[in-house]
Description:
Six copies of one chain form a homohexamer.
Chain A: H1 12-17, E1 20-25, H2 39-55, E2 58-59, H3 82-96, E3 103-108, H4 114-126, E4 131-136, H5 137-140, H6 142-148, H7 158-168, H8 177-183, E5 194-195, E6 198-199, H9 221-244, H10 247-250
Parallel strand pairs in A: 1-2, 1-3, 3-4
Antiparallel strand pairs in A: 5-6
Helix pairs in contact in A: 2-7, 2-9, 3-4, 7-9
Amino acid sequence: MYLADEAWPDLESYFETESLALVPLGSTEQHGPHLPEGTDHLIAEALAREAADRTGYLCTPTINVGVSSHHRQFHGTMWANAPAFRDYVESITRNLTYHGIDRVIYVNAHGGNVQHLREVGRRLRDSGDAYAIEWMWDESIPDLVDDLFEQNGPHGGPKETAMIQHIAGELVHDDRLADARDGGLSAFDEFTGRKHGARTFYDAIDNSANGVFGDQTDATAEKGQQLFEAASDQLVRLSEWLADQPFESLVAKRHV
Amino acid sequence: MYLADEAWPDLESYFETESLALVPLGSTEQHGPHLPEGTDHLIAEALAREAADRTGYLCTPTINVGVSSHHRQFHGTMWANAPAFRDYVESITRNLTYHGIDRVIYVNAHGGNVQHLREVGRRLRDSGDAYAIEWMWDESIPDLVDDLFEQNGPHGGPKETAMIQHIAGELVHDDRLADARDGGLSAFDEFTGRKHGARTFYDAIDNSANGVFGDQTDATAEKGQQLFEAASDQLVRLSEWLADQPFESLVAKRHV
Amino acid sequence: MYLADEAWPDLESYFETESLALVPLGSTEQHGPHLPEGTDHLIAEALAREAADRTGYLCTPTINVGVSSHHRQFHGTMWANAPAFRDYVESITRNLTYHGIDRVIYVNAHGGNVQHLREVGRRLRDSGDAYAIEWMWDESIPDLVDDLFEQNGPHGGPKETAMIQHIAGELVHDDRLADARDGGLSAFDEFTGRKHGARTFYDAIDNSANGVFGDQTDATAEKGQQLFEAASDQLVRLSEWLADQPFESLVAKRHV
Amino acid sequence: MYLADEAWPDLESYFETESLALVPLGSTEQHGPHLPEGTDHLIAEALAREAADRTGYLCTPTINVGVSSHHRQFHGTMWANAPAFRDYVESITRNLTYHGIDRVIYVNAHGGNVQHLREVGRRLRDSGDAYAIEWMWDESIPDLVDDLFEQNGPHGGPKETAMIQHIAGELVHDDRLADARDGGLSAFDEFTGRKHGARTFYDAIDNSANGVFGDQTDATAEKGQQLFEAASDQLVRLSEWLADQPFESLVAKRHV
Amino acid sequence: MYLADEAWPDLESYFETESLALVPLGSTEQHGPHLPEGTDHLIAEALAREAADRTGYLCTPTINVGVSSHHRQFHGTMWANAPAFRDYVESITRNLTYHGIDRVIYVNAHGGNVQHLREVGRRLRDSGDAYAIEWMWDESIPDLVDDLFEQNGPHGGPKETAMIQHIAGELVHDDRLADARDGGLSAFDEFTGRKHGARTFYDAIDNSANGVFGDQTDATAEKGQQLFEAASDQLVRLSEWLADQPFESLVAKRHV
Amino acid sequence: MYLADEAWPDLESYFETESLALVPLGSTEQHGPHLPEGTDHLIAEALAREAADRTGYLCTPTINVGVSSHHRQFHGTMWANAPAFRDYVESITRNLTYHGIDRVIYVNAHGGNVQHLREVGRRLRDSGDAYAIEWMWDESIPDLVDDLFEQNGPHGGPKETAMIQHIAGELVHDDRLADARDGGLSAFDEFTGRKHGARTFYDAIDNSANGVFGDQTDATAEKGQQLFEAASDQLVRLSEWLADQPFESLVAKRHV
Lengths: 256, 256, 256, 256, 256, 256
């Protein structure tokens, strides 16, 4: 059920019987020369609405701009500063509880939002108002993501490319995939850019000239569909699991 | 040009030659028994993208949740508290200046956002960073809005009904128009709900049992199209006017 | 009853029997070449104390500096930034509830304060602590204000001129009234300074070279007295109405 | 020169030639059974206006409500929380610099404001925007204050009583002076209420049942006049001294 | 009992039976040419741990950096801005109440922290969460401090010198004591640097070229030991007194 | 060089020639039944001071309390809320730049601080004031940490146990190592406690009854020494690398 499409009387029975909401969040930021800046919010919204369609749980409109200052050197990247983002998301979530929502899944497709959504979730749980958790699609299907591509990467790489090829293929510049790989950093791992254990970089451009990490030349819409279906399955199951929990089991445990 | 659809290299020439952005903002809130909760953000986004398409100016993704606590008694209304909303919008706008944007039109379709967008615009202008103005579609075509309908109203009334009939007709419950009128406050003016000059009400429900103001029974998709085209024209002209101004003429005047 | 004149034991019976306070707020800002910068706080204080005298309700000292950055280009205009003003007023109001006050009238004479007082009032009502409303004198007697003068105006115009001629005539430069009109913008309406529906101006100086709006050449102390008495009457009635309401009827309504 | 009484064109020459402002601040809080709650702001305003009259320096309107939560147990005490008070005063002061003010004397008559005004002054000096200092009238004439009365006290005592007898004698309940003394704590010194070096009290009521400290039975209007004149003299001299300093000598010194 | 040395199960019985914590706070700032920058936090920690050892009350780790911007012109002075310091201390203290702590002694050795700790203490008391008081060692033994030295001083003077000679003698440059005195301001009293009653200085360097106040040439480790023992005694007694109070007697009194 | 031990004149030459500071940060929180609550700040301080001793770079005092609310169910855990912690650390770091510091290593031993230190570092870098990076000791020697122990764990496990056995052996309850393992969660990996990709837990107690993760029965002081030396080596090299960089290479890169 998509909240924004409904008239208010048609939401009454939902709030009487359910207390879960899916809130999609992404970013609007550079994703290399081949992908649209909306990549993350397109993915988050598509997955959240798919899961809502399949389960009947409530999906809210998408928060399209997140914490992306680390991509700001590339034209068009939009971002909110972290404190403003956190307070905006917290405020929206807390106000949802006015209607009886007490559990939220942040359907997220932007790594830069993760820690901030976790912090907001903690505030809401510590105050006892709601239980909100962050879910990032590729974290839910790590094996499939690993299996499908030769050389993955955390940003603008093959997994995101395949997803957009599937969701909004017309927005992918398929003729730039090799350029995307060659102009970026195809082989990125946890320790790239570290010195003696410290992460010394802050911005994507510190490691990649065109903002791309990974090799997207083996991305296809078919693989995107596989990812989409597998991730949707996970989100459906997570929603069902979460809806089934008694609220008491979700709030913070008591002092020993 | 829609920012979220573009890959970053394709935005470079825009930022080299232009410094204007259209930022659509709406709300997700009750709009009576006949209209979807997304009414305001649907209208804002449609108008902003239309004007961007016709002019080539840049349109950003939409901020879908605004300041709507005055509608919170109705199922599904979402809102951010005013300080959080202002800081989020300010942060996003200020960060756009990093790419060279120095003038912004907030394409707004929610009355509850107006004062907050004006406040953000003042902050940006007072600090000399950008000139941002709020534009609300119905304020740009007051005569047409007056002429088309018997009994207008500020919220959920015929003007919004007609617009959604035109933009997303499938989301309008045409069979509930009379109910919407009868269950709400059809005749609302500036002084309704005032006592001896003071506005004594805070929430929509203080004046209208179903959240509706106005009589939407004479709304049609055709009238919606008229409104849409007329308002788009105004937004196009405003964009062109604003793009033409020297920045010096937009910043705050000097002390006498 | 004027709070600042009383010793604390003499306030005890008031707080035992009443829960209403009148809080005057104005501004200290340019009001053209003919009026003192204190115009707004002088008016607010005079009206609040008159109503308190006539009814016995409690009047607090005046908050003399408000949100006036839009007049800052003229010598002497003082202002607090909007967030600081809101927090100061909210804090003072919230702390009044410690003594049992649960309803407040912000007796306001500065248009620039209106939205901020409304926002503070909403915070207090949403949290259930107090019901505070903004009252602006000229909004309470719109017909009389219209009838008395040829060409009104929102700032420094005939209505404010007449009020100060009545309240503190020695502070009016009667010999500058024609200059005030000729150097300013005498004919101002809602759409002055708008472009295609957008309010493009932010500061008074954007529309008026001397900060004046309206034609004050037909202002007199006698008309000021009429305004003062009529507005006082309204404030007295508003106070009585508000004192009579059960608190339950003032707080926010419940969810449908 | 009193800012609020002037029309803006009449302030121009002041700002061209001077850069000093006197800002009176007080409180509205219990001052025992014999004195009005406005005691502190009455004193601050009277002294600031007197010094402005004698020197020609600019005096602004008074900030009537300060940081007085330590008096809140007594009817009518008003207060702003400390962060809100600081931000409001800082904002007003910082905005005065827009007109060329670069030095400010906070003419203060409330002990509870001192540390907050010092903190605001530090912020303004550290940022290089203005030099603002707190001046409290009784600190300027300690010997006279000591000599005139048998048993002084920091709050509601003879020095404040005498001042109000002089400034606004009609507001003093002369028939309650002995009661004020007997119901309060007449002999208060630095170590009253301390335990082993720690100040264990927070509120006036912790030490005084009626909120009074000191013995006011020997206060008279004549002594009040002496105090007023002596303190005014000090403020005049301070103003003249401050106006004479080069701004460079007022800002923070450089790193060694 | 030193919290940081204990494993959590070994703290259980303490929290079951006691609700007091000692929190040492100091500064890291210049203390003249002869004393280490850690002087204040060394003293605070030594005293707090001594009192905890002698009484069994809980001592937490030390907050080593306080509000010291008034010493910033001297190499190495560290400081947090006042709002950040207050919020950090408040947050830590408030969170201690989660374990049952409801009374706290801030064992403080830096004058610049006093007002901020008082403000935090007030916040905690006004909200009813905890009773926290500031204790500064030299305020607990004023007579001894006066008796031991010819010429005291508030910063870098003989009392602090003697304390560090006792606590960490190896960090004192005994060969620089005369230089310390001669390069600073040996005779400082309340009115030094005042003009007509106003404190016109903000930084230590405004009054002392080397940051020292007082004459430390008669400081010795033996005198330091006397001070340490006497102050420890006071802190022990204060702790015992505080632990003995019923919580109801510590919270704010009710409205009259 | 340890800042707190030095008198200010002895720091002058350092600031003239160097611009690097090591700032140790840890936590005070439960570390299982066998380790002291100070474990993290003890480790951070020991490593930072060792590296400072070996290189001559400046080490500041330690920030002993961090972001640990996820351990609050266990007696004695102290924490600051995340915004207060960030602002305190940011303020201290920013103020260090007053002396010429432009690069900082946060020598950190608490996982819960990482994201907050990264956020502070980003603020400082984005504003161009300083380049600050977070370094966590075990991240610098991942292979050694893996090799030394059978079953590692992120908190209270063998690596931390061995470190404290080496640094402050008297604080380790060696007789509780098996209990620590058996009462906690010995086998913890990235996906423990996740559901369908989402991290559903917030607190340590959600996964471990005694707060321990890992098997510490093979921890020894000798292994601790190995870890300490290896990590110190890394920190020394990082310090030298960082000191060698031109500041221009550390600040944020320009827009493409």
